[in-house]
Design brief:
Number of strands: 20
Low-confidence stretches: none
Shape: globular
Number of helices: 15
Strand content: 15-25%
Structural class: alpha/beta
Radius of gyration: 25 Å
Distance between the termini: 58 Å
């Protein structure tokens, strides 16, 4: 732990020297990061297979390609992002003019989880670098192979007094959280998110919390059922369901439930074969602890699709549960695995009421061809993000923000919003000296009426 504290001290010194604030320095750093990723791409693919059994396609789609897109976008737009913005100034502040500038916070701590170990550490890092900060990166101890490669990437691209990766367990992370950082960015579970926020409060450190929750998926009676089934299966069972924005449960109109279940079963076979265990595209559960937790959630439930599992391989088949009650154990926590509970409704208001009775989710999905229904759902619910007629795709667009609300998190990032998150927005007033209006100075005498006129 002394090494981490020493690194933090060195990074604070480098930041105070001001070299990370320079535009060219930031651009060069982003380009070095991209080159290092490309150089270690094959190693990353292999490591992600070792840790999570991700296919090369899925590794690129959801991790490597995602981060490279973020880097390319930042490099292309950084000069514009850094440019000061002029703002209008009210007459009563004449002869002053107003500007908004952005400046880096300083040294940032980024803590990432295991489910997308590369993406969820390196995507925030792009914003950290673009905004001109230094960073200490803390990956999850549950993905050791990927962490080893990420460490090589960071060490090959940056000195540790600028960007450093610290491979530590949770107890060491707690010690790291006791230090005074200028910003903390955390992705993970709600309980540890509370712990991070409490630690940050000791130093009044600003935080971004990217958490999770039970993201609902509504399928209304006028939806394109075949398309809904295909996109639900893809979004739910991507990374074996270990995705924070995966559809957590279905709310299906009773008139289309039977046909949707049939189509979902067909889609599982189309995408993963008759035996998903043999599919090269179907990942595994991260460890035995999470495996046992997931198995306990389906105990006593009505399994209509899947249910097969193998503890030695940490394999759980894509599984669909019917007739699930709101009081069921599986409906009390985020599933984070390949289990899909199904609840039905007769009136849309029932589905909306159920969603609103729970904590605000990280994502909300709706399948309908009626724009009035999708507008109603968006107007009467709240979530971090949403998709109409698709699932899980909105975080991929670098031009829109990604983040939670309420229990699903606070703050946002991706693209410009990453730059904005890791930048302090500074308001600047520049007053001229050739003209000095005396209205604001004492003695005030009979100036009040004039003040009221100009400030109306």
């Amino acid at each position: 732990m002394e090494d981490s504290i020493s690194i933090l001290s060195k990074q604070k010194k480098i930041f105070r020297n001001g070299q990370t604030k320079n535009y060219k320095f930031r651009i060069d750093a982003l380009k070095r990061l991209k080159s290092a990723i490309l150089e270690h791409e094959k190693e990353l693919v292999k490591a992600l297979w070792q840790d999570l059994r991700k296919s090369e396609f899925e590794s690129y789609e959801t991790e490597i390609g995602f981060v490279l897109t973020e880097i390319n976008y930042a490099v292309r737009c950084l000069k514009r992002w850094m440019k000061p913005t002029s703002c209008s100034t009210p007459l009563y502040l004449f002869p002053s003019r107003s500007r908004i500038i952005t400046e880096p916070y300083g040294v940032v701590l980024v803590i990432s989880p295991w489910n997308y170990p590369f993406q969820l550490l390196f995507a925030p890092l792009v914003g950290v670098i673009a905004a001109g900060n230094c960073a200490i990166l803390k990956p999850s101890p549950l993905t050791p192979a990927t962490t080893t490669v990420m460490n090589r990437i960071i060490n090959s691209a940056f000195p540790d007094n600028y960007i450093a990766l610290v491979d530590a367990d949770n107890s060491e992370t707690d010690k790291l959280l006791q230090q005074h950082f200028d910003y903390i960015f955390f992705t993970g579970g709600v309980n540890y998110g509370r712990h991070v926020m409490k630690a940050a409060a000791e130093h009044l450190t600003p935080v971004t919390l990217e958490l999770g929750g039970k993201s609902p998926c509504i399928v209304d009676k006028d939806a394109d059922i075949a398309i809904a089934a295909k996109r639900i299966v893809w979004g739910k069972f991507l990374n074996c369901g270990q995705t924070c924005v995966a559809p957590d449960y279905l709310l299906v109109h009773r008139d289309v439930k039977a046909v949707l279940m049939s189509k979902i079963k067909e889609e599982i076979t189309k995408q993963y074969g008759t035996d998903p265990k043999r599919s090269p595209d179907y990942p595994r559960i991260i460890n035995s602890q999470h495996f046992e937790r997931l198995i306990s959630l389906i105990s006593g439930e009505d399994i209509i699709i899947g249910g097969d599992n193998d503890p030695e391989e940490l394999y759980i088949a894509p599984t669909v549960l019917d007739n699930v009650k709101s009081s069921s154990k599986i409906m009390q926590e985020e599933i984070f695995g390949p289990l899909l509970p199904v609840m039905e409704y007769s009136k849309l208001e029932e589905a909306i009421e159920y969603i609103n009775s729970k904590d605000k989710p990280l994502a909300l999905y709706c399948f309908t061809n009626d724009k009035r229904i999708s507008r109603k759902i968006l107007a009467e619910t709240s979530s971090g993000g949403a998709c109409i007629n698709d699932t899980t795709i909105h975080p991929v667009n670098s031009k829109i923000p990604f983040g939670g609300v309420g229990q699903s998190g606070m703050g946002m990032y991706h693209g410009y919003y990453s730059y904005k998150t890791f930048s302090h927005t500074r308001s600047v007033m520049i007053s001229g000296t050739k003209l000095n209006i005396n209205t604001k100075y004492a003695p005030y005498g009979k100036k009040l009426n004039l003040l009221k006129k100009v400030m109306k």
